[in-house]
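Researcher: We're teaching a course module on how sequence relates to structure. For the next exercise, students receive a sequence and then see the predicted structure as tokens, so they can try to spot secondary structure elements on their own. Here is the exercise chain.
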Amino acid sequence: MNSRALKIALDATAIGRGKTGNETYLRGLLEGWSEARPGDVELLPIFMGQGATDWPRRSATLQNGRAGFFRRHLVDLPEACRKLKADLFHGVYWMRPWESGPYVLTVHDISFEVHPEWFRPGEAWFYRTLVRQAAERARKVITVSEFCRNEILERWGLVADRVETTQEAARATFRPGKRKKAGAPSLLFVSAIHPRKNLGRLLRVWERLRAGRFPDLELRVVGPAGWSAGADLRALRGAVASGGAKWLGPHSDEDLKRAYQEATLLVYPSLYEGFGLPPLEAMACGCPVVCSQAGSLPEVCGDAAEYFDPRSEEEMAAKIGLLLDSSTRLEGLRARGLERVKNFSWSRMAEETAEIYRRAIES
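Model: And here is the predicted structure for the students to work with:
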């Protein structure tokens, strides 16, 4: 082991750019690092101009704050890494094809490989080609669930000890608050609107429940419009116009925390999930969770959620109705959720990441 601290340059340029999954991961890593403080590893984040944070130690900010993707990844980030005299670079998805320096790479999931139909023409090919090439040359690949790790190993054939899992967590801002006063029950959907998030089926289920035993059931949708969201957006706008549904759009952490605290139930019907932070955030706020059984969600939520087949509207409606009918079941989920979130910690994730850096340097 080196006698001096290892210097790790981190691509933190997603912060401040509205890249929700990457930004949440990076903010959580920095938050956890400030708590864990691994003394033998110095983390040196590289920010964009608009991504200013309260990071208290050494960092770098790209001067060309509005640089596009290619300029940023082919020129600006490598130059910043050299100026920081880093021993290792930590990239998120992307690396220069000709990069010769040592690096680790975070790949949240490979949905572009498994479900190319969810991407714009040519986009899935672009991701499959560049991300896979970057992963094959990385000292270590970091992913966020055992589900994703297994998919990467099976699809890309990487050596098992080069792919490691560090699970995410709910950030400290998400915590229980005042419970919603008696009134109309409400379902909460939290996500960027995208075909894989399955909002269209939830809207039809909500309408079915309102037409039946729950005529006052409300629906709140929190999140921005994503790519290929046309059909779901049209259905959402129709539901809003008909009454009982609200689209709250993009959100601050404070707004989102309040939405979790006030909802009767978070419904998370995703067709594919690499990790699934909204269910954990909801649990941390004392909001019961009913979710899809797809992807990593059973791994993350354990026994603290009720599950349904995301392609079965009948099963989704039945599970939601069962919970709305039973305050005892809702209270049981709430209690188990508050216990479940204790298994996840950004501080532990930062410590595990520091250990991956050490092993990557030694390999």
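Model: If you want an answer key for the exercise: Residues 20-36 form the longest helix (17 residues). The CA atoms of residues 44 and 68 lie 22 Å apart.
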